[in-house]
Design goal:
Number of domains of chain B: 1
Number of helices of chain B: 13
Helix content of chain A: 25-40%
Largest interface: A-B, 29 and 21 residues
Order of helices and strands of chain B: HHHHHHHHHHHHH
Structural class of chain B: mainly alpha
Shape of chain A: globular
Radius of gyration of chain B: 21 Å
Structural class of chain A: alpha/beta
Strand order of the largest sheet of chain A: 5-4-1-2-10-9-3-8-7-6
CATH class of chain B: Mainly Alpha
CATH superfamily of chain B: MetI-like
CATH architecture of chain B: Orthogonal Bundle
Shape of chain B: globular
Oligomer: heterodimer
Chain lengths: ~240, ~260
């Protein structure tokens, strides 16, 4: 069976290095690991950011790094949601979403963006400055923007980290739907074991300069090959024994 | 804890007074009649149009070349960035008289590049081009330093998001990096323009003081002082007005881009 995501590469960003060896046939892919272990670097490399890739990155059988220069970010059909959302500060909410809308002219793009915001119940924020948004609103708008081109690969970097508890539950459900959409491969980094349960898929542990697949959440709960993973999953274990 | 605070307030207010007092004294020393008379002379108008023309040309050169340089410096870390910023700062710490000598030594007829330029039939010293070159030299560092700081605040992820949303590298820079840094770029440009407008020492030595060709407003003030102090004061107040207008105009531009 063809792998959804097949990576055998060393990633370099400045002095930082990460060895990645993954072959994952079923998404979504959930990245876990300590802060600074390289989850963001791996997501940036998949988005086509300023990361040197020595080796190959294949997504659904297509080699993205076989050419020099590698496949450009705009040709990858990815939706990228960095930590904090990275909304464009000089544009309002509608302008942010319209920036990526696929329409041919400005009026079409703005209409598409308005429709996308309406579908998520965010139309009331359309004309608001990005400076006057709550953390939860920022993330939800950044998610709408990342999805507006219907990407084949969706990359989320700790999408719930900035949210308060009440916003977290609803957004977690929305993200599960986005990650599992038809024909899409989702890759998300998270620190929350509840995300792992809600989003399913394959766990990838990023630790000590390496990224390796662990298997499903159930595999990880029974095997637990790392202290970090044991600690991360302990709330789920306590829940199971109670 | 409150005593250093009070001392600090007094010290701060004193400095503020020292900064404002000479300007207030200058403005108070002239009458509207003097200003009107000075503004009406042909020599003032000639110097004013020359000042605006040359400083606008210098500003265009600084913005077109300095902004990309600032971007390159902001995306670098380590020794390359430090060396670049240090080189950019050199004209700021050099006295303008030293810059004037350096320009003459480089571009003058007897200077390093003199023979080559003579062969090409190009002569820069004592022309309007020399005025612009001197202004670029003193103004560019202010813009490049402010623009580098403004670009430093533009996260790589902003550009990467723009690329994944279909923008080419150039388009992402033009539509995201540049507008996101616009307030800082505008204030850097305003500082550079004000500095170019006020440039005196290097201009005098490298371009001379030829009415109509190289006599900018600061040099016109210098010449007027030898004839008539009242006229010099009046022209000074008019130059002050032009400089403040430039500063406020640039700030308003930056404010507009911030509010959008």
């Amino acid at each position: 069976m063809r792998a959804d995501l097949d990576i055998d590469a060393r990633l370099r960003a400045g002095r930082f290095e990460l060895d990645v060896r993954l072959s994952i046939s079923q998404g979504p892919v959930l990245l876990v690991g300590p802060n600074g272990s390289g989850k963001s670097t791996l997501l940036r490399a998949l988005a086509g950011g300023p990361v040197t890739v020595e080796g190959h990155v294949r997504v659904r059988g297509r080699n993205w790094t076989g050419t020099s220069p590698p496949l450009s970010p705009e040709a990858r059909k990815v939706g990228y949601l960095p930590q904090g959302g990275a909304l464009f500060p000089h544009l309002d909410v509608l302008g942010n979403v319209a920036y990526g809308s696929p329409g041919a002219d400005r009026a079409t793009r703005r209409a598409q963006a308005r429709a996308a915001l309406e579908a998520e119940g965010l139309a009331h924020l359309a004309n608001r400055s990005t400076r006057r948004l709550s953390g939860g609103e920022r993330q939800r708008i950044a998610l709408v923007r990342a999805l507006v081109r219907a990407p084949a690969l969706l990359l989320l970097d700790e999408p719930l980290a900035a949210l308060d508890v009440s916003a977290r539950r609803a957004t977690r459900t929305r993200i599960a739907a986005a990650l599992l959409a038809d024909g899409r491969l989702g890759v998300a980094a998270t620190h929350d074991p509840r995300d792992l349960r809600a989003w399913g898929g394959t766990l990838v542990l990023v630790e000590d300069g390496r990224a390796q697949a662990i298997g499903t959440l159930e595999d990880a709960l029974s095997a637990s090959p790392s202290d970090f993973l044991n600690e991360l999953l302990s709330p789920l274990r306590e829940g199971a024994t109670r | 804890m409150s005593t250093p605070g009070r001392t600090g307030t007094v010290a701060g207010l004193f400095l503020l007074a020292v900064l404002v007092l000479p300007v207030a004294g200058l403005v108070g020393s002239t009458s509207p009649g003097d200003l009107w008379a000075a503004a009406g002379t042909a020599s003032f108008r000639e110097a004013l149009t020359l000042s605006i023309r040359t400083s606008a040309a210098a500003m265009a050169v600084i913005a077109l070349l300095g902004t990309p340089l600032a971007w390159l410096l902001s995306r670098r870390q380590g020794p390359v960035r430090r060396l670049g910023l240090t080189l950019v700062e050199v004209p700021v710490v050099l006295p303008p008289a030293v810059l004037g000598i350096a320009l003459l030594q480089t571009f003058g007829r007897a200077g390093t590049l003199g023979p080559a330029m003579g062969a090409l039939g190009v002569g820069i010293p004592f022309t309007e081009g020399a005025v612009v070159l001197a202004q670029v030299l003193v103004g560019a560092p202010l813009h490049v330093l402010a623009a580098t700081a403004a670009f430093d605040a533009v996260d790589d992820d902003l550009l990467l998001v723009a690329r994944t949303l279909g923008a080419s590298r150039l388009r992402a820079w033009w539509t995201v990096a540049l507008p996101a840094a616009a307030p800082g770029l505008a204030s850097g440009a305003a500082m550079a323009w004000a500095r170019a407008l006020g440039e005196f020492g290097a201009t005098l030595m490298f371009a001379g003081n030829l009415p109509g060709t190289t006599q900018t407003l600061p040099l016109a003030i210098y010449s007027a002082m030898e004839r008539d102090m009242a006229e010099a004061r009046a022209v000074s107040v008019l130059l002050l007005g032009v400089a403040v207008a430039v500063l406020l105009g640039a700030r308003a531009l930056g404010g507009v881009s911030r509010a959008r």
